[in-house]
Amino acid sequence: QVQLVESGGGLVQAGGSLRLSCAASGRTFSRNAMDWFRQSPGKEREFVASISGSGAVSSYTDSVKGRFTISRDNAKNTIYLQMNSLKPEDTAVYYCHAAHYWGQGTQVTVSS
Fold it and tell me: What radius of gyration, in Å, describes the C-alpha atoms of the chain?
């Protein structure tokens, strides 16, 4: 059974940092790009960041460029999202995605 399990969410003040993790099990994703998406109440799920299978190439939505960094450790079958300078508008449930699999999400709440 393939699973993606996110962790690391929580409550943080504006300007603070969090590091999200997404651990995959059941298969390896070292040849797949992996992504982070997020969804705020009343809004559609939106793309946040993506990283290639090798980790050499990454991309970000404009609103997080310079603040968020995506990385991966293929030996651990895990990706990460380092989030710095967090803003209240970053509040959302953050989801990990790979191939056609989704994690259950982890809540990030940024207070002003």
Answer: 13
Distances (CA, A) of 64 to 32, 67, 70, 75: 22, 5, 11, 27
Q: What is the mean pLDDT of residues 87-91?
A: 97
**Positive or negative: CA dihedral 58, 55, 103, 10:** negative
**How far apart, in whole angstroms, are the C-alpha atoms of residue 52 and residue 76?**
16
Chain segment 33-80, per-residue pLDDT in tens:
999 999 999 999 999 999 999 999 999 999 999 999 999 999 999 999
DSSP 34-71: EEEEEE-TTS--EEEEEE-TTSS-EEE-GGGTTTEEEE
